[in-house]
Amino acid sequence: MTPISIGPVELAGRVILAPMSGVTDIGMRRVAHRYGASLVVSEMVASDEYVKGDEENRIRAEGAGVTPHVVQIAGCNPHWMGEAARLAEASGAAIVDINMGCPAKRVTGGYAGSALMRDLDHAISLVRSTVSSVKIPVTLKMRLGWDDASQNAPELARRAQAEGVQLVTVHGRTRMQFYKGQADWRAIRAVRDAISIPLIANGDGASLVDAQTMLAASGADGVMIGRAALGRPWLIGEIAHGLDPQIVPAPSQLGRAAAAQEHLDTLVALMGSQAGLRHARKHLAAYANHANGQDPERSTDRLRLVTTEKLAEAKALLASFFDEAEHVPIRASRSTTSSAVAA
Predict the structure, then answer these.
(1) CATH number of 209's domain
(2) Based on the domain organization, do 50 and 160 belong to the same domain?
(3) Are 37 and 236 in contact (CB under 8 A)?
(4) What is the pTM (predicted TM-score) of this model?
(5) How far apart are CA 246 and CA 16, in angstroms?
(6) Active site annotation includes 102
(7) pLDDT at 329
(8) CA-wise closest residue to 9 among 58, 72, 99, 69
(9) Residue 334 has what pLDDT?
């Protein structure tokens, strides 16, 4: 298969870390990128707040240490989408991604995210403004449609391509499904038939077998992995390596422990000790669970790990989970599509 190219940006593999609000912070993206992710995407950034200088959105868009840097923007106003794209480009982004897939009520209630699939003319006005505002490539993430009666992803993708979008990602659910049931990878093939630009399939991928099945069912050029990577950001590269042995292999247990500690250090450096530690809790719990298989004898330590206000204690506890598992063979990734949720 030919490499995936997004304008002048050529990817080394076919597996991308999904943008996930509150999850894919710069620490997680750095680790995933180092260990073989073909591309990593920032948390969703609210276009107007980002342009107005909101600190939280600035942190979400942080990309130092990641190349190529991708910023995902969301909104419902063409002006703010264009301005946010300009700011992302000026701040070092190599690609801007438009969010038309988020199903959260706080997003769709403001007529952004997947709500835009209910009004394709308006959706395309946002695409047009974004593309015309920057020189870097623009990509688009969407769902199959708003509901089963309006699976209009092929039409949106076709029109977006005509406006200059250079890659499309499709999550194999409608907005009304949220994350219930299973993603329909076969339904994504209708988008493949509608466009000639690269297509990425998303939704429920959690293993190499999943990725291979997603590619075959959808006809996509690559896959995007989301929640399954929480606590194991190297999973993206692990799957990419399975598809292409030239991709860097997964780290050793010692490497994983160091990466988890680095992730925590990054968040603390970026947000301060207390805020960084609180933000890291979901990651710390997931790292611990994947490191030792959720050993019931460590339940008290896991609770301390996610409740302590002391950075030194958190680092010591995190290290202990990896130390305990150091001589245990690293478990192969298993498909967990019934519980894994991709953004």
Answers:
(1) 3.20.20.70
(2) yes
(3) yes
(4) 0.92
(5) 16
(6) yes
(7) 44
(8) 69
(9) 33
